[in-house]
Amino acid sequence: MMPLSRRAFATAAMASLLVGCGGQGTEQSATAGSRRKRDTEASKEGQEGGSSSASSNSARTPGSSPPVRLRIPAIDVDTPVIRLGLAQDGTVEVPPITADDRAGWYRHSPTPGQVGPSVILGHVTVGSYGDGVFRDLARLRRGDRIVARRKDGTSAEFAVSSVRTVAKADFPADDVYGDVDRPELRLITCGGPRSGDEYRDNVIVFAELSSTAP
Fold it and tell me: Measured between alpha carbons, how far is 77 from 103 in angstroms, rounded to an integer?
């Protein structure tokens, strides 16, 4: 990740992360403190939620290339991926509320397959349009496949290591944004009890690179 991107990524982690669900933005605290230390061996288990057994030392790390499509077979997700940046108030942008709902990659995070946590956001609901692209994200289980197709034509395949539902007030910024020494993926949406257009919680999927392919 380039230095400018790293700075912007840290800025976002220290700002309020905005994950709008149902057409209304729900603000949560995402203040980043000390970075979480992770084991240096990609195949070693023992982190919270467990490391995926599908992780492989043979998975090569590709160069930088933004994601253009995301597939999650276990929950029938096959969506284009748009780019997201920072809003004027310093919060992370979210995908627009449209009938043709799409996931969005935060462009100041690493691209999928690069070392570090690549962050992709999606809605669970999209107002009057109904279900969002990440409506079933909480159903994922350890080992489920996630495939990010990149602009350069390559694919980075990940395996789910853990799925967490957390109160927005207790958003685990260190776990989501913290430095890691291997390629990982974070998928984020809303979840939990709903009041009007707002949800109390966030659903966060943690995944690790298992393979890359042309």
Answer: 10
75 token code pair: 């929950």
Q: What H or E segment, with its residue span, contains residue 170?
A: none
Q: What is the pLDDT of residues 163-181, one digit of tens each?
A: 999 999 899 988 998 899 9
Q: Cβ distance 51 to 43 under 8 Å?
A: yes
Phi, psi of 58 (to 5 degrees): -85, -10
Residue 18: what are its φ and ψ, rounded to 5°? -105, 115
Q: What is the 3-state secondary structure (H, E, C) of 9-78?
A: HHHHHHCCEECCECCECCEECCCCCCCCCCCCCCCCCCCCCCCCCCCCCCCCCCCCCCEEEEEEHHHCEE
> The tokens of 65 are what?
């290339």
Q: What global pTM score does this model have? A: 0.77
Reduced to 3 states (helix: H, G, I; strand: E, B; else coil), residue 154 is coil
Task: Compute the Cα dihedral for 79, 110, 153, 40 and give only its sign.
Answer: negative
Beta carbons within 8 Å of 96's beta carbon, 6+ residues apart: none
Report whether 127 contacts 97 (CB < 8 A): yes
Angle at the Cα of 211 from the Cα atoms of 208 and 212, rounded to 5 degrees? 120
Tokens of 118: 């690549």
Question: Domains in the chain, ordered, with CATH?
Answer: 3-32+50-213 (2.40.260.10)
How far does Cα 133 stand from its chain's mean position? 13
